[in-house]
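Protocol step 4 of 5: obtain the predicted structure for the target chain.
Materials: sequence only (see below). No template structures provided, no constraints applied. The aim of this step is simply to have a reference model before the mutagenesis design in step 5. Sequence pasted as it appears in the construct record:
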Amino acid sequence: MSPKAQVYGTELILKEALDIVRGEGMRALSARSVAARLGCSVAPVYSAFGSMEGLARAVLEEAARLLDARIKAQGQERAFLAMGAGIILFARDEERLFEALLEDGGANGRLARFVRELRKRLDGAPMMASLGKDRLDAVFDRMWIFSLGMASALRNGFIKETGDEALVGLMRSQGAIVIYGETLAHGEFESPGFITRWKRALSDIEGREASKSAGRAGTAGRGKGKA
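Step 4 output (structure tokens):
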């Protein structure tokens, strides 16, 4: 009796292909590299996906699915923060997969399409939708650009604190600044009205800081008196 032929299913082939991209990047993906990991010829790879283009598309779709799962894992209470945090944490932990998504066709690639899907989700988030379409579009675009810059800074070692709390905190503070600025300026950053509102906001901030300093000084004074 001849030995039973090994069956290489689509899921197994995709898993091996994904692991190759995770470790070495999309340029290392080939029918031969996948076949070598499986211990077979290239025939099962082409049989399952039709071509290397088909396999590459499947890898990118899986990478996008994993990115979406990371975003959803951040919670849905604050959808906007969850998106930014999920993207940057994924870029940190899955550097090669994120790189592969970025390199897939630029503005028309899989990552760009996924980001457009994320933008649509915000229409169902009451707090964000209250900004109105134009302001929400502007805020989303600015934060997406910030996320890309942050991912690049992470990759090149310019961010010292790379733990979850530090990265999410940075994303939260930047998001608050962008939302506040867009709401305050109404998109007109050089208008007299914006300058007036901005000065008022800075004055409020300075007043709060002065109150905190006075409170700390008072606490320190009482402590000395007791001593």
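Step 4 remarks: The radius of gyration is 25 Å. The longest helix spans residues 192-226.
Proceed to step 5.
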